[in-house]
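Recall that a protein's primary structure is simply its ordered list of amino acids. Everything else, from secondary elements to tertiary packing, is in principle encoded there. The following example makes that idea concrete.
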Amino acid sequence: MKTCFAAILGGTLGLERQYHDKPAGFATNCLICLGAMLFTILSEYMGNAGGDPGRIAAQVVTGVGFIGAGSILRDGNKISGLTTAAGVWLVAAIGMAVGYGEYILASVVTAAVLIIQLGVRKTIKLMEFVKRYDTFYLVCDANWKVLEDIEKRIERHDVSILKKEITKQDNHFLVTIVATFTGHDFQKVTEELLLLPEIHSLYK
């Protein structure tokens, strides 16, 4: 009973991770949930035999932390894998809850994780349509007429420029623009401006 339940709950969360092409997928989450469940049962047996029931359970939390840390990657200022690491840690907790016979609690937490994971993704997609303050940077030829053309093209996409800073370096203008725009506005602006030979890069 506990084995099947742990496999189902761990596998459910693993399927969501695998669907979104994350490192810890179906098999990994199943194994972690089953392992945490088994260790929890063993810790109960240890307690019944007069030992310390918390020793094994405590080591599960520590051990899973190392597994989760292995999924965290850093590339410059960008860090990825934090959600996967947190998911691994939580799957182990769900397995421990199953091991202690807390089936309802484990099910509710599993459902909550799915709602959060799927809901957050939809919220992020909706945020692409909301105008917000943001900054983008571009490098172009050191020509004032080029800057005027860039400004006109940006404002043509219903983007409001709030602040602009220009510095010159190696016969190029480094331009910082603070504006209000949506994610789709930025994509359209980028696609149009990068077609101009006078612009060398554009990013935010």
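The helical segments are 2-19, 26-48, 54-69, 82-99, 103-127, 144-155, 183-193. The longest strand covers residues 132-141.
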